[in-house]
Write a structure and sequence with these properties.
880 residues; alpha+beta; Rossmann fold; Taq DNA Polymerase, Chain T, domain 4; 5-stranded mixed sheet; 34 helices; 25 strands; globular
């Protein structure tokens, strides 16, 4: 669950001045607060895995959980801090050498059930499904750490076609990739479940192994030992001698002083209020302020609804939308409307045809100003009911971001606490949060909660109006961010088609590469080793092979990717060659598995875009993240071939900006040399190299060009001569000379880079070309590390932020022009500086011209915006 919290929250938004990241701690704490609030448990325990390779499962099968990626650097230290948090909270933590956390849960479940309790196990490990009974349930996370539904025996039966008691039998046959337990080739859950049902369980299946025909029968007979091993390893222990009794787990309460000190050191603010409120306390010793739900009407028919809407004509109305799971994503089931004129709750499911038409007219009226929290989600949810939403003038999740782009979270609860100093628990299944179960629309308390949410949004939006004006961000909200939300909603709904055949092909190819690399690695050292175990790798590399030591870390010497790459370049050892090949292929395989799980019923991947995660203004992608597909290696680029044109369309079109950040640098610095190079269509890095090395462009070698390119981009990120020397593997003196020659020739760049930091120090913020601000109070900090970090951000933000604004303007231009021309081609993806479109038959020429024109004119710079376009049947083929 801590790892889920880590990946659910952006690490760069949760870090302390000493470099310690805290996203996993924050997410884990938030999850636990919600669970305690919702489930109201009488006893609580947290189980941890022991952080070494001494479990009995690893002893029995050395490949158990092998192939897992090394723990992300940003996760370092967070598990220990979560342990500290639990101690201050009064919650017992349990570790058992030789066993895993799920064995501890299994034992606690048995103890609790025996004592007559209902037991809830919170885990992302499917092995826990075997523990489900009439009194034991698994809270299994679907998304992050906020969507954690309760699974009972019926849920397991419906999904896997076996009882919970038979789940471990099923897992033994099909394997478990998370534990690196391979299943029987060609046998999926349905086949395995059919055998289990027919023969009464795994034991019966193995007793009748000779009766099962076909290729799957042959595969079963060839893998009987592996199946028995899987079953032995996946069976959870329910009889451990735990160091605690159930009574010791009862009614934990936080130690106020210890929690305050820990939260101070972690720089946690609003979550502290939530924790103390849970126990009937507050951080200031007085009840926190609240906004009560205003009195509201529930219009009985179209006439009453139209009368309410007419009375609020021209007034800003806050709109909260209740979301419920639907056939495609989520559907809107109810609305709350709050304005100066009054409030209303509208149950969409209860409306007759005339009333639905009335609310539909109001929703799509651009002259009826609306404010809300979560505009993009509302667009999709209302669209799923056939309703159009227009006239939205504020989305507080975006306006809050424009005001403070470095905040960690923009959920309604935290914004209300931070800006209005009020306590607010968002309702379940609304555009603001998706955390709790929402009651039936007829439930008066649920209706009041949704109306209260709309009232909070109204107050927050009023507060933000002045803030947006003060920061000159009102135009960015109105003309850029809100229109982009609409385009992103359309892109998310459309999704992109996936070729499962190519997906499976690549997974099979990678499996062969992984197996071969593993064999070759073993051959290079003369014995087997777990290639996914940092501890075992340290022994092999530094003790057995005697290779040069890498950076010293708490557990020995680092085996992270960068260090091993440097070690390989230094030694060329065959074991490292194969280890790196194994890692790279395993990483790609894991990525493909994630993508595979993300394919929806319609055969498409529908990523979720966010406008308020990256502080620079860049759009981010998650569930799944399509922006981290590698492009520097052929194997990585090949992943793009699984994204294909869908039926009824002619091809995919990919368009991206060439060297957009360097072009922005040329524009902002006003350097005549750089501007001239771009205007004349020169190869910039070759041009710069010719001036630095005082040779003609054609004599600039590839190595020279690479050095210049690394330096040119690095300067925009505050690269030092030491950093450049490390990056290019040259001496610091050579790097210093290179930078000196660069600045002698391109003095305007040097002046700009110096000036932008000094200006930001005076203003307190940096600005993009469009005026997007990023406030940097640490520019005047007495802490050198914090100050230097702020200086690097000040260098980079205007350039990267301007690039983000430009691609957003391009998206609006392309979308608008497609509609204006009546074309049916559509935009599907936005990845950094690239747009991917699906082109309808006969529209290729028009769309190519349209995209080139709109992207090329998205900003008026002193240098041209160069747009490169390619087409093909897949994203890979459309590359250029």
């Amino acid at each position: 669950m801590a790892f889920r919290a880590f990946f659910a929250l952006p690490a760069d938004k949760f870090s302390l001045s000493n470099g310690q990241h805290t996203n996993a701690i924050h997410g884990f704490t938030s999850m636990l607060i919600n669970l305690i609030k919702d489930q109201k448990p009488t006893h609580i325990a947290v189980a941890f895995d022991v952080s070494d390779d001494t479990t009995h499962r690893k002893a029995e099968y050395s490949e158990y959980k092998g192939g897992r990626n090394e723990t992300p650097r940003e996760m370092s230290g967070q598990i220990d801090l979560i342990d500290q948090m639990m101690g201050a909270w009064g919650i017992k933590t349990i570790k058992m050498p030789g066993y895993e956390a799920d064995d501890i849960l299994a034992t606690l479940a048995a103890m609790g059930e025996k004592a007559g309790y209902e037991v809830l196990l919170v885990t992302g490990d499917r092995d826990a499904f075997q523990l489900i009974t009439d009194n034991v349930f698994v809270l299994y996370p679907r998304k992050g750490v906020s969507d954690i539904p309760r699974l009972d025996a019926k849920a397991v039966q419906e999904k896997y076609f076996v009882t919970p008691a038979q789940y471990s039998d099923l897992a033994a046959l099909v394997g478990e990739s998370a534990d690196n337990l391979p299943g029987i080739p060609g046998v999926g859950p349905k086949t395995a479940a059919k055998w289990i049902s027919l023969y009464g369980g795994l034991e019966g299946v193995l007793e009748n192994v000779d009766s099962i025909g076909g290729k799957v029968g042959d595969a079963l007979r060839a893998n009987v030992d592996a199946v028995k091993r899987n079953r032995k390893l996946n069976r959870l222990h329910t009889d451990l001698e735990l160091p605690v009794t159930l009574d010791e787990l009862a009614e934990p309460r936080p130690d106020r002083v210890a929690i305050e000190q820990l939260f101070d050191s972690l720089e946690f603010k609003t979550i502290r209020t939530r924790l103390f409120e849970l126990y009937g306390e507050d951080t200031a010793g007085a009840p926190p302020a609240t906004i009560e739900a205003p009195e509201f009407t529930v219009p009985a028919d179209a006439a009453e609804l139209e009368a309410f809407l007419a009375a609020g004509t021209g007034r800003r109305t806050s709109l909260a939308v209740q979301l419920v799971p639907g056939r495609i994503g989520e559907d809107a089931s109810a609305l709350a409307l709050v304005s100066d004129n009054g409030a209303a709750f509208v149950d969409l499911a209860a409306l007759d045809q005339d009333a639905e038409a009335a609310i539909g007219r109001w929703l799509q009226d651009p002259e009826a100003p609306k404010v809300m929290h979560g505009y993009k989600d509302a667009l999709k949810a209302l669209g799923n009911r056939g309703l159009t939403l227009e006239g939205v003038v504020d989305d507080t999740s975006i306006s809050g971001y424009l005001i403070e782009p470095d905040r960690r979270s923009y959920d309604l609860r935290e914004l209300a606490q931070h800006h209005l100093q009020i306590s607010h628990e968002p309702t379940a299944a609304t555009t603001g949060q998706l955390e709790l179960e929402f009651g039936e629309p007829s439930d008066g308390a649920a209706a009041a909660a949704l109306v209260r949410e709309a009232a909070v949004v109204q107050e927050l939006s009023r507060h933000f109006e002045k803030e947006l004006v003060d920061r000159k961000a009102e135009a960015l909200l109105a003309t850029l961010e809100l229109p982009v939300s609409r385009v992103l909603a359309q892109m998310e709904t459309a999704g992109i088609s996936i070729s499962m055949e190519r997906m499976n092909e690549q997974l099979a190819d990678l499996a062969k590469v992984i197996d071969n690399a593993q064999e070759q690695a073993f051959a290079a050292i003369g014995h087997e080793v777990n290639l996914g175990s940092p501890k075992q790798l340290q022994t092999v590399l530094f003790d057995e092979l005697g290779l040069p030591k890498t950076k010293k870390i708490k557990s020995g010497y680092t085996t992270d990717a960068a260090s091993l790459k440097a070690l390989l370049e230094k030694t060329g050892h065959e074991f490292l060659v194969q280890l790196m090949a194994h890692r790279e292929s395993a990483k790609l395989s894991q990525m493909l598995e994630t993508l595979k799980k993300s394919v929806a019923e319609d055969g498409r991947i529908h990523t979720t875009y966010a406008q308020n995660v990256a502080a620079t203004g860049r759009i981010s992608s998650n569930n799944p993240n399509l922006q981290n597909i590698p492009v520097r290696s052929e194997e990585g680029r090949r992943v793009r071939s699984i994204f294909v044109v869908s039926d009824g369309y002619e091809c995919l079109l990919s368009a991206d900006y060439s060297q957009i950040e360097m072009r922005i640098m040329a524009h902002l610095s006003g350097d005549e040399g750089l501007i001239q190079a771009y205007r004349e269509g020169e190869d910039l890095h070759r041009y710069v190299g010719s001036h630095i090395f005082n040779i003609t462009p054609e004599h600039v070698t590839s190595a020279m060009r690479s050095k210049v390119k690394a330096m040119s981009y690095g300067l925009a990120y505050g690269l030092t001569s030491f950093g450049l020397s490390k990056q290019l593997e040259i001496s610091v003196d050579e790097a210093r000379t290179l930078m000196k020659q660069y600045f002698e020739r391109f003095g305007a760049v040097r002046d700009y880079l110096r000036g932008v930091v000094e200006q930001a120090r005076m203003d307190g913020y940096t600005s993009t070309i469009e005026g997007r601000r990023r406030y940097l109070p640490d520019l005047t900090s007495t802490d050198r590390q914090a100050r230097e970090n702020a200086e690097r951000i000040a260098l980079n933000s205007p350039i990267q932020g301007s690039a983000a604004d430009i691609i957003k303007r391009a998206m609006l231009g392309v979308s608008s022009e497609l509609a204006a021309r009546g074309l049916t081609s559509r935009m599907l993806l936005q990845v950094h500086d690239e747009l991917v479109l699906e082109v309808a038959p006969g529209e290729r020429e028009a769309v190519t011209e349209l995209v080139a024109t709109q992207m090329g004119s998205a900003a008026q710079l002193s240098v041209p915006l160069d747009v490169q376009i390619g087409v093909g049947s897949s994203w890979y083929d459309a590359g250029h």
